[in-house]
Design a protein that fits this description.
The complex is a heterodimer of chains A (about 250) and B (about 110). Chain A is mostly helical. In chain A, about 65% of the residues lie in helices and about 0% in strands. Chain A is globular. Classes of the chains: A mainly alpha (about 250), B mainly alpha (about 110).
Chain lengths: ~250, ~110
């Protein structure tokens, strides 16, 4: 199909979509007047029932916990799928990670980038763990904390070299951490089943004060495992991408 | 003003779809898909918004203060994670397509038929 034809076909379809969308909008409650049944119901009971003052985390790791297991496995599958799609093909070989041209100097990383990246690595790790371990009180949780933790490894890559990055995150360890994170979440659910309770039932003590770090039972524990899984998955995804540019060469090279 | 946020949603969808249809580069096309998906964040947060309500966090406010819907906010979080996963996988496929066919232009790729 010619590009001009494509565009006209798209515009015709978009006009239809817009018409149906506006028709659908006329039946929605206006912005700011949400009457839905689930949100208000959860807001009424969540804090008393889970002792988590962050109700979004309570929804994610408690009321919708089963969906979040699925969500976590989507990320797990994507990281695995990426490793399979980007495997070393028949015509390719992995370049030796040893410097092949010792007499030629590679342009060094600038001192400014190195210093800033190293300065930030420690605080970023702390912030990442803080986010992953405060799901029950803050707008945070394992997903956000895990991504921030993975950023610390990108800073190491920026400060040093790819091989240092690899040294800090060896594939067999990140693989294991990812599996522990994904499996830990599923195992917490199964532990409840072993106690004769429904899957992912919050069976741990909820703590005295709502909003304390030690409160909310399994919500905090699940968030911790999600943090491990997300951090490992993102490190795997990033190192797969970096390997493509830095180590994989086609056979002819 | 009652439906303005929802008009923004359909505008973002339209802009992203237009980019996908007219794109001449797979990476650009993937970014346009991200634009389309980001419309769902606006939609979810717009649907759950309650005028004059606080965020659903009760550290500093009494427990029964009116708050916006926490369910759609949790859905938006799911949405972000899935988007990151899908984007990573699509970028990996784009890398392999470029290796195999030496081009990222979807019009040229169509001629190879696998």
């Amino acid at each position: 199909m010619k590009p001009a034809h494509r565009r006209w076909l798209f515009l015709a379809g978009a006009a239809g979509l817009a018409a149906f969308y506006l028709w659908g909008l006329s039946g929605l409650p206006g912005f700011g007047n949400y009457p839905g049944p689930y949100g208000p119901a959860i807001l009424r009971i969540a804090v008393a029932q889970t002792h988590a003052t962050g109700v979004v985390s309570a929804v994610n790791f408690e009321y919708r916990g089963f969906d979040t297991v699925g969500e976590e496995f989507i990320l797990f599958t994507a990281a695995v799928g990426m490793a399979i799609v980007l495997r070393t093909l028949r015509r390719e070989r992995e370049r030796s990670p040893v410097d092949e041209a010792k007499d030629r100097d590679a342009p060094p990383t600038s001192e400014a980038v190195r210093t800033v990246a190293l300065l930030f690595t420690g605080p970023v790790v702390v912030v990442g763990w803080w986010l992953a371990s405060h799901a029950q009180t803050n707008p945070s949780g394992g997903f956000q904390g895990g991504v921030v933790l993975a950023t610390a490894f990108i800073l190491i890559y920026l400060a040093g070299e790819f091989l240092t990055f690899r040294g800090f995150s060896p594939a067999h360890i990140t693989d294991a951490v990812e599996a522990i994170g994904a499996g830990g979440f599923a195992a917490i659910g199964l532990a409840a089943v072993c106690l004769g309770l429904p899957y992912l039932y919050n069976f741990l003590p909820l703590g005295e004060t709502p909003g304390a770090v030690s409160s909310s039972g399994t919500i905090a524990l699940i968030s911790f495992f999600v943090g491990l899984e997300v951090a490992a998955a993102f490190i795997l995804i990033i190192s797969e991408m970096l390997e493509q540019t830095l180590l994989i060469r086609s056979g002819g090279d | 003003m009652q439906i303005f946020p929802f008009i923004v949603v359909v505008w973002i969808v339209g802009a992203g779809l237009y980019g996908i249809v007219t794109s001449r580069d797979l990476i650009h096309q993937i970014i346009c898909l991200i634009v389309v998906q980001s419309s769902t964040y606006v939609l979810l947060l717009g649907v759950g918004y309650v005028t004059g309500a606080v965020a659903p966090y009760f550290n500093d406010v009494p427990v029964h203060t009116p708050a916006v819907d926490p369910v759609v906010q949790a859905l938006a979080l799911t949405d972000v994670v899935v988007e990151a996963a899908v984007t990573a996988l699509l970028l990996a496929i784009a890398i392999q397509a470029h290796k195999r066919f030496g081009t990222l232009d979807p019009h040229d790729l169509a001629e190879f038929k696998g």
